[in-house]
Amino acid sequence: MSRGTRIFNQGDEGVRAHAVIEGGVRISQTGSDGAQVVLRFVGPGGIFGTVALFTDGRYPADATALSDTFEASWSEPELLDLMERYPQIAISTIRVVGRRLQEVQDRVRELATQRVEQRIAHALVRLAKQFGHSTTAGTAIFLPLRRKDVADISGTTLHTASRILTGWERAGLLVSQRRRLTIRDPSELLQIAEEAID
Amino acid sequence: MSRGTRIFNQGDEGVRAHAVIEGGVRISQTGSDGAQVVLRFVGPGGIFGTVALFTDGRYPADATALSDTFEASWSEPELLDLMERYPQIAISTIRVVGRRLQEVQDRVRELATQRVEQRIAHALVRLAKQFGHSTTAGTAIFLPLRRKDVADISGTTLHTASRILTGWERAGLLVSQRRRLTIRDPSELLQIAEEAID
DNA sequence: CGTAAAGTTGACATACGTCAATTTCAGTGG
DNA sequence: CCACTGAAATTGACGTATGTCAACTTTACG
Where are the domains of chain B? Predict the structure, then answer.
């Protein structure tokens, strides 16, 4: 599956549960007014599209391949059957979904109470934790992220995201090359993220 | 349980699953900086605190009684045992949590892309759907909501919320009495909520 | 009936979005 | 391998929605 391919679209039926084997996927949502937010990124080993199986049977978001990607998927009956026979699978799914719910709730609080700079910092720290691997230059996030992606995951415009990221690059906090971000020191970003508003 | 009582606090251990029998509960979250958001309100028949059982065993939010409230609760072993024996309970829990996840994701999109006025309108429409009952004056929301509650669920300040609600009251869109809101016509609010930004 | 909580309202400050013009980059085809 | 072309990114100027601060009024409840 090549870069930019839509794996599924918001509203599609025939929902399946997916897992990323290799590459990366962007899960985003588009409102009736066309405004877009990125809900999350999924890397190797991550699952997506699972929740829709248990709600209305339509995907609530779009999934797009960020780079060349391999993925596997299961149909609803396969998964339900598995859960009936092995309740632990269902229980661990609740765990996964529950954790995600808490993450999204944290984002709601951030969006409601923090400034853009802090939200971007938080987003990068989270991405570094999830997708980062250490290099001599710092923690590299191996997903290809456009400014627009960073903006959409932080709830801002690509202009503001661009200004802030360029500022950080000038200050030596990170390096941005060919859509790959390398964070010199995540704890510096964390400090920005936690800064009081006053 | 009388008005204002804390049912549990963010970070508390000894998590139990709760259900509201009578009254109303506000689920809110406080950030390290003291800023607050309301995640949702729970009315009779609603359950809360369930997700924490499956994640880290600590409540991720505060629960406060909005009015005099009766509630029931179950311990973790009781619920897990039930789910082991009746997988359908686990599966339907995924359904409930999944729906909530989608709602929170919608709010993320709203916070990221809409103006305060639209967000408040949406919040009221949702509350009317969930907690409203028809009266001659319109749809009455039977939960006691302070301006601060409306603000915290819409991601704004009580000042801005006050201005907007007072404006709507002047325009005859709603009546606000003793912390009870009555919406003359929800579709008018929906129209405000859907207004393009342009 | 008094006191504290809740709500209103005005003046002002600012973070951020919008608009628009350029520049840089990345991938394709010759 | 290089030129070409559309996508991505940068940057400045400017407007405004919304937060902040502060004073005041109204309401709720012991």
Answer: 6-81, 115-194
